Amino acid sequence: MEIHELIMLIYVFALAIFVGFELITKVPPTLHTPLMSGSNAISGITIVGALLSAGLEEFGISTVLGLIALIFATINVVGGYLVTDRMLKMFKKK
Amino acid sequence: MEIISYLIYLIASILFIFGIKKLGSPKTARQGNFLSSLGMFLAVVITLFDQRVLTFEYILIGIIIGSAVGAVMALKVPMTGMPQMVGLLNGFGGGASALVAFAEYYHIMNTAGTFDVATGVTLVLSVLIGAVTFTGSFIAFGKLQGFITGKVVKYPLQNPINILLLLMVLAAGVIVVLEPANDSNLLGIAGVSLILGVLLVLPIGGADMPVAVSLLNSYSGLAASMTGFVLQNNMLIIAGALVGASGIILTLIMCRGMNRSLMNVVLGGWEDAGSGGAGSGDGPQGDVKSVDAEELAMILDSAQNVVIVPGYGMAVAQAQHAVRDLTNILEKKNINVRFAIHPVAGRMPGHMNVLLAEAQVSYDKLFALEDINDDFPNVDVALIIGANDVVNPAARHDQSSPIYGMPILNVDYAKTVVINKRSMNVGYAGIQNELFFYPNALMFFGSAKEAVNKLVNEIKEL
Question: Which end of chain B has fewer beta carbons closer than 10 Å to its terminal beta carbon, N or C?
Answer without folding.
Answer: N
